[in-house]
Write a structure and sequence with these properties.
The complex is a heterodimer of chains A (about 400) and B (about 260). With about 400 residues, chain A is α+β, with helices and mostly antiparallel strands. Chain A has 13 helices and 10 strands. Chain B has a single domain, classed as P-loop containing nucleotide triphosphate hydrolases (Rossmann fold). The chains are: A alpha+beta (about 400), B alpha/beta (about 260).
């Protein structure tokens, strides 16, 4: 006769409610693990999808994700001349927040190096990649945009021609893919008044130096468009992505480019590590610690639940001892209930999580290894938390049945 | 083992049993130098006011409250020598002693049948055999129709009969009952007492009943009256008397019917 099952059957309502409670608690533990994993995966998603062998960034920076990196646009051409390089792509990345249809629209803007890169590699769920140099965008579904939507950004309006799924940055913002030129236009967009003020300031600066006084045409140009002044640099890019020829060691090419005084070079793995140890490290650490805390709290709560369940049965346990039940029968009853509570709680946590987590604003990734790890933790918690109840049960004297 | 169950040995034999709680200024003597014998087939009663030591004696004989001094033998086998165990108490209780209490003390999460069956299974019966015997016992006690009911769904009398069935399940040499009829009406109380007699005679065991119920005293072979932890008086039924006549003796050790 299985006393644990008989007791549960008799107090089914209480056991079910307790199990649901434990299950929800474990779901939160599971969810925190999933969020932790989601942050890690999201952080490296873009780096993995872009699949560049090398990332060339501003000298001395850990860009373009960990910190700001600014490079001249023509750097891509210079890198392309290095032996072993088969392809270079300009990479522009920044985040903007605008209003769209009366709601905030936060877009992680990513510039693709048209026409080399039209976004064919993107995981499209609808529409097509970019087909022209300007005014088109591919948006991630998390942005809430639909095919054909027209999104004003700066002075231009961009049409959504494709939709991706699961393409978000380390902050959880949906990615919008534009040509690098459009991405720069969005990044460096200024209002008319700001342009006028900058031109006036430029005239002032030129007017104060000898060159301005000796070269009157410079003053005239200073009042015009920025692009008309050859001495001023065009808008910057964030990085240059490099693919090396098959069979070439990326580190050899990186060593060659690293010799230049104006750039730093990171391999794909280094870039991934920079991301994980930079922008997302504290979030990872915080969630990781919170997960540990939640696990400990779950263990304490489960121990208290099992202890209380045992306390409720002390008279029955004394009675069992009185009629000669050996300790293993009593121990087995408590331990089996603990394991059932843990196992069913875990099952409920998993089922609830499967339903609830996809509704979260950020990705919650339940990986098999993490689930197995949590299952083992729950098993250990179940056994350990039943120790308190078993200890109490073992101390009960049979004559307490008579009290 | 054969020698311990021989028909000529008493079912219960208690010698100089003493129980002292606490020590020094807080010392309380709950039972002092109690000696009594319950022969096979005999049903004895323990009477006395609260605090007279009845329950202490009962729990000591039931091997759940070790005495401070004295010896206990059950079925001829010494089981306690002072506070020292001479056998595995829990196993011995399971195999040789049946308990019945004032409150039925059934396990609430087991049905009536399961409450009886658990005692059998703990003693090594298979589930199927235990189930069969449990149903037989419940039928014998007239509660077979309530076999699948939980204790909370049974009346006090029905619960008590299930408790009796559990106590009888392993055919114990000794039945210890603490006010078993308190929750029963007089008719049911009488039936339970008669049942004890029947079991004692059929199984050749001994029964000790703590009772305040004056209505069924005639059922008992010997009545021990306790005061201040001692057996003050023992009254033995004279078997030859057609009216259940009794002989009182202030010296209990000599009042035993032989």
């Amino acid at each position: 006769m299985n006393l644990a099952v008989k007791d549960i059957r008799h107090n089914l309502g209480r056991f079910v409610l307790t199990t649901i409670g434990v299950g929800m608690l474990l779901m939160i533990v599971m969810g925190m693990g999933g969020i932790y994993r989601g942050i890690t995966e999201d952080a490296t998603l873009l780096i993995d999808k872009l699949d560049a062998d090398l990332w060339v960034v501003q000298r001395g920076t850990r860009g373009p994700f960990a910190e700001v990196s600014r490079l001249p646009t023509n750097l891509a051409d210079r890198v392309a001349t290095v032996p072993g390089v088969t392809q270079t792509r300009r990479f522009v990345f920044h985040t903007v927040q605008r209003q769209h249809n009366g709601k905030p629209l936060r877009v992680a803007v990513l510039g693709l190096d048209w026409p080399t890169d039209r976004g064919e590699w993107l995981p499209l769920v609808a529409g097509r990649p970019l087909a022209q140099n300007h005014f088109e965008m591919v948006a991630d579904r998390t942005l809430g945009l639909a095919l054909g939507d027209r999104v004003p950004l700066g002075k231009e309006t961009y049409t959504v021609v494709g939709l991706t799924s699961g393409m978000i940055d380390s902050g959880g913002n949906g990615l919008g893919f534009f040509t690098a030129a459009d991405a720069q236009t969005i990044q460096f967009d200024l209002t008319g008044e700001a342009v006028r003020l900058e031109r006036a300031a430029r005239v002032g600066r030129v007017d104060r130096i000898d060159l301005g006084r000796t070269q009157p045409p410079l003053l005239e140009r200073a009042e015009g468009e920025t692009a008309a002044i050859p001495a001023l640099a065009p808008p910057a890019i964030s990085a240059v992505l490099v693919r090396v020829q098959p069979g070439t060691d990326p580190r050899t090419v990186a060593a060659a480019i690293s010799g230049w005084a104006d750039v730093s070079v990171h391999t794909q793995d280094e870039e991934r590590q920079l991301m994980l140890s930079g922008p997302v490290e504290k979030a990872k650490l915080q969630i990781g610690l919170f997960r540990v805390l939640l696990t400990l709290i779950s263990a304490i709560i489960m121990a208290l639940i099992l202890y209380t369940l045992t306390l409720d049965k002390l008279h029955d346990i004394a009675l069992l001892k009185l009629i000669g039940a050996p300790n293993r029968v009593i121990l087995g009853m408590i331990l089996q209930q603990a394991l059932l509570l843990g196992a069913m709680g875990f099952g409920i946590a998993y089922l609830l999580g499967q339903w609830l987590f996809p509704r979260f604003p950020r990705r919650v990734i339940l990986m098999q290894d993490d689930l197995i790890q949590l299952a083992v933790i729950v098993l250990v918690i179940s056994v350990l938390s039943s120790v308190l109840g078993i200890w109490k049960a073992m101390r009960v004297e049979p004559n307490e049945a008579l009290s | 083992m054969t020698s311990t169950t021989a028909a000529d040995t008493p079912a219960i034999e208690v010698r100089g049993l003493t129980k002292i709680y606490g020590s020094g200024n807080t010392e309380v003597v709950a039972m002092r130098d109690v000696t009594l014998t319950v022969n096979r087939g005999e049903v004895v009663a323990l009477l006395g006011p609260s605090g007279s030591g009845k329950s202490t004696l009962l729990t000591a004989v039931g091997l759940i409250n070790p005495p401070t001094a004295g010896q206990i033998a059950i079925g001829g086998q010494p089981v306690m020598d002072g506070p020292r165990d001479l056998v595995n108490l829990r196993t011995f209780r399971r195999e040789h002693i049946g308990f019945i209490f004032q409150k039925s003390n059934l396990i609430p999460f087991l049905t009536a049948r399961e409450n009886v069956q658990i005692a059998l299974e703990l003693n090594g019966e298979t589930s199927r055999a235990g189930r069969k015997r449990a149903l037989e016992l419940l039928d014998y006690l007239g509660v077979a129709d309530r076999a699948d009911h939980y204790p909370a769904m049974l009346s006090g009398g029905q619960q008590q009969r299930v408790a009796v069935a559990r106590a009888l399940a392993n055919r114990p040499q000794v039945i210890l009952a603490d006010e078993p009829t308190a929750a029963l009406d007089s008719q049911r109380g009488r039936q339970v007492m008669e049942l004890f007699r029947k079991v004692a005679h059929e199984q050749g065991g001994g029964v000790i009943v703590v009772t305040h119920d004056q209505r069924s005293l005639d059922v008992f072979d010997t009545i021990y009256e306790m005061e201040d932890g001692r057996v003050a008086r023992a009254t033995t039924k004279v078997q030859a008397s057609p009216h259940g006549e009794r002989v009182s003796n202030a010296e209990p050790s000599t009042a035993r019917q032989t």
